[in-house]
Structures are given as C-alpha cells and as structure tokens.
Amino acid sequence: MSRGPSRGVTVRSPLVSERSPKAGLSGEDRSRAAQRRADLAARFLRPAGERPAPSARGVHHVALLCHDVEATIRFYQGVLEFPLTELFENRDYGGSTHFFFDIGNGNALAFFDLPGLDLGPYAEVLGGLHHLAISVERSRWERLRDNLAAAGVPCQEVDGSSLYFSDPDGARLELISDPLGEMYGSPVI
Hints:
3 helices, alpha+beta, about 25% strand, 2,3-Dihydroxybiphenyl 1,2-Dioxygenase, domain 1, globular, 12 strands, four-stranded mixed β-sheet, single chain, 2 domains
C-alpha cells in the first residue's frame, strides 16, 4: 500500500495487482487500465476524514428475480441460513410473490417471481448483477461452505476468505469472511 497523490489517500500498489487473473486484459492494455485507475483515484478518491457523510442510511434491500419461490426459500433459508422474514404479493405484478431474507446488520435480500413471463436464464449484462458479496463471520463461513457442499452446490474458494457460487436461478453470490467495510485486510469504507 502507498499513500496517494499528496492527499493522504491510500492506494494499492503496484498499479497492477501481483495476482495473475485467469481472464481480462494483459500486457500494455492491463497497464493502461491500471494507469486509468490511478488517475481516477487521484481525481476522485478522498481521505476518510475529507469525505462527506453518505446521503443514504444503507441498503434497504436488494431485489432479485427468481423462477421458483419455494426453491429459493429452501436455498437461502435452508442452505445459507438467512431467515425468511416476510412474504406478500408484489404490488407491481399481480400474482407475483415478494419475499425477504434477513442477511444481518439491518439488511434484507428480497426476491420476487413473475409468473406467466418467460424470463430466460440468468445472464451477466451491463447494468446487471455481477455478484452479491455477503459478509459472514469466519466460523459461519466454514459452516455455510459445508452446507453448500452437502447440498451439492459447486463453489470456488478464493484466498481462503471468499466462496463464489450460484443460487438456483444462476445469480452469482460470494460469502466473504472479511468484516463489513474491509476487503483483503484493508478498509474499503
């Protein structure tokens, strides 16, 4: 880690990560992307003491679509141990079920189905969800890893702190044992 351009901002160095990603840019293209990141950090990233307070109180809920309400409840409550907290008709689409799981710290993960519409399979698209990272304590992370294995859910474990997998509809999730506001041992908030 190094201090950023004379403003006391911590930026990661070197400009290109020591890790070798399996995909993405390489060579000069990757170096240009790293330089672009450094330029953006120099222009926009402020030290914690100079940042204004956020205008939001937090995430009320993130809403995802599902194909099968019961399968979704079985996965999120049964495998991931997120308690189902509410279930009612979606106000925007007749017959649709809107339901919520408590994912801790006053945050909710919500779903709804859209019966009668053929939405097709999950796809990563610009503006769409890449993955949702949910922080869990280390002991819970290990238990949930075992739950996923017992349920036959393929997982990718990265750096001993992240588990990547997909839910029944293909949405990518990450369980991360880093505390809220940290990533790889460094503060991000």
